[in-house]
Amino acid sequence: xxxxxxxxxxxxxxxxxxxxxxxxxxxxxxxxxxxxxxxxxxxxxxxxxxxxxxxxxxxxxxxxxxxxxxxxxxxxxxxxxxxxxxxxxxxxxxxxxxxxxxxxxxxxxxxxxxxxxxxxxxxxxxxxxxxxxxxxxxxxxxxxxxxxxxxxxxxxxxxxxxxxxxxxxxxxxxxxxxxxxxxxxxxxxxxxxxxxxxxxxxxxxxxxxxxxxxxxxxxxxxxxxxxxxxxxxxxxxxx
Length: 239
Prior knowledge:
Elements: H1 2-30, H2 35-62, H3 76-100, H4 103-110, H5 116-141, H6 145-172, H7 174-195, H8 202-236
């Protein structure tokens, strides 16, 4: 029983780490929608992504050939990672360009927004790309399906709770948005390399990302304190 609890906790932890990637992707994608549709897109996208991940779990349990080479030494899993990594790279670079060139502001003035169904589809597809390795790892840890499914559902509930506040915080701070998009470029390259059987230690990815985020938060704190200090000085000046 203790071993089962340990495996369950490990799978939940894996899903939550993956959830960081999900939150970044969802934040960027839903920002392309009108504000009144954004929360609905988060919820529907996450629920459908969770269902797709569970379906993928049962599919992988039935189709062991998913990891067997089919073309040029690459398996279906490898092809999914390669295509998904390239798409994530394209999406992240495009969004960085749009942010820097103020395309969102121009589109808002023209009332141009992405379609709801398009955003939902991209959320689900990218989540499935993220899911391939985690589901395969979960199956390697245990063959008890209900343990994996319960862990996936619990992790998604946690992600659903935090995706909105974290997403809104990122979007309210352009520097953080660009940093998040840079993270997605790194993740896209990592997924692409894994598809080519080039393993990249996750610590080499998440530790620099965490350090960059920490430095950016310090910068934001400094800017706020500096602004408050200047305002205090201005208030003390005689009229």
